[in-house]
Amino acid sequence: MKISDKNTQIGIDIGTSKICCAITEINSDEGSNKILGVGNVPSQGIKKGSIVHRDRVMDAIEAAVREAELMAGIKVNRAMLSISGDHIRGINTQGAIAIQKSSARNVPMEQEITQNDVSRVLELAKAVSLPVDREILHILPQEYLIDTMDSIKDPVGMSGRRLEAKVHLITMAATTAKNLVNCVHEMAIDVEGLVFQALASAIATLDTDEKELGVAVVDIGAGTTDITVFYDGGVRHSAVIGVGASTVTNDIAVMLQIGMEDAEQIKLKYASAKASMSSTELEFDLPVKNGGIARKVSEHELSRYVEARMIELIQLIGREIARSDVSDQLTYGLVLTGGGAMLRNLVPLAQEKFNMPVRIGRPKNFSG
Ligand SMILES: Nc1ncnc2c1ncn2[C@@H]1O[C@H](COP(=O)(O)OP(=O)(O)OP(=O)(O)O)[C@@H](O)[C@H]1O
Ligand SMILES: [Mg+2]
């Protein structure tokens, strides 16, 4: 097997329900990605982004990596790790610096802002006092201000006395991240960096217009629902809610008194996010436990439970979106991603409750 070269990108996504490894080749001319190999295995030992059973996690990562390697014919020796979980938080901060006069020139001149100034101001913006157990995962500039001018995207080369940066910081629990990195390291895979999965998938699904004019990307995973609000080209708010699609499965299991696996199958086959859009006449059989009596449930009854939970989730999402100061300016409304977005009739339900446009997001610029 050959070793990956600089054009190949390798990503490992560690989710609650599945662990995914993708080997892609970047075509810089077309700006597109060609998928060379993927490995997708059911996740084990992960709960809401954190390791609960280390050996099982290692086995699952290993299986996903081997599958992708085999398909691509490329040995995985390094990777970007995409992580999620309710230990991830987002905050808005800012920093400001005075622009130093260049002493090399004796001609009177307005001070020009350099890349170095930008790095300095970003350093300051991220120097917020974080609790000891937290680390910065991403620092995402929203806008720069020079003296009294605002909404500047790239200040390099402009002149002024004072430079301010407004940024969105995404932080993570240091130990949770370290444990995941260690698992991958132990397989002789070098971790090139960490990315917040919701951010990576948002960037892959949105176009520039949506990021500019305002959109909220909602990734409904198994364990968590991740929200990223974009406006004016930057991230304005991000949050992770500890309720995901597996909560629905859990409800079904409890209400119908069946096992989680059966509940999952029933959800995939018969559940609708809007009970009114499912039939009271269509019934399905519940799995019969040894010697138990046969029972039937209608799609409508099942969907009532599902709808109640989805409305609750929609309220939690709405509360988070309202926390961003641009909630009434989301021209493009909501983009739903993640496995939970595939739930039947979720789009009409969300549209109705949010009173905003809602679409399902799919990654762009991928082939193969
Ligand atoms: N067609 C479908 N209808 C309803 N739910 C679905 C459908 N397909 C997948 N799901 C649900 O989506 C969830 C898995 O989503 P996803 O693969 O995005 O999770 P994950 O990335 O592993 O989890 P997390 O992001 O929370 O770590 C499961 O709970 C599954 O039941
Ligand atoms: Mg996920």
UniProtKB/TrEMBL annotation:
It holds the Pfam family SHS2_FTSA. The keyword Amino-acid biosynthesis does not apply. GO terms for cellular component: cell division site; cytoplasmic side of plasma membrane. Gene3D superfamilies: 3.30.1490.110, 3.30.420.40. Transmembrane segments: none annotated. Residues 9-205 form the SHS2 domain. One of its GO terms (biological process) is cell division. InterPro entries: ATPase_NBD, Cell_div_FtsA, FtsA/MreB, SHS2_FtsA. Keywords: Cell cycle, Cell division, Cell membrane, Membrane. HAMAP family: FtsA (MF_02033). This is SHS2 domain-containing protein. It comes from marine metagenome. The lineage of its organism: unclassified sequences, metagenomes, ecological metagenomes.
